[in-house]
């Protein structure tokens, strides 16, 4: 009976972790410094508007919002799908999709 309870807890934990994964994933090409990706900054968000750039689980507004970025936040775009960019950011590193209209300050 105790063994069954442990298995149930592990199953629930794995389910909640997979819910945080991207609906449309992308690969990060890296050599420990992500040389395959370039740098950009979030910019142009209206401070009188909602004040954040939604990070989504896939390239479009129909995908789940999984995080928020703000003006000045640094990202590394690694994949493109139309006007949407697959980016990674933060420490610990996270990744998701953002609309390219709000990315600038591109650096190689």
Question: What would you say this structure looks like, in words?
Answer:
With 108 residues, the chain is α+β, with helices and mostly antiparallel strands. The protein has one domain (24-107): SH3 Domains (SH3 type barrels, Roll). The protein has one helix spanning 2-19, and strands at residues 39-42, 53-56, 65-69, 74-81, 84-89, 94-99, 103-107. The strands form two sheets. It has a five-stranded antiparallel β-sheet with strand order 6-5-4-1-7, with no helix packed on it. A two-stranded antiparallel ribbon has the order 2-3. The radius of gyration is 17 Å and the shape is globular. The model is unreliable at 1-19 (pLDDT under 50).
What are the SSEs and their pairings?
Elements lengths: L1 H18 L19 E4 L10 E4 L8 E5 L4 E8 L2 E6 L4 E6 L3 E5 L1
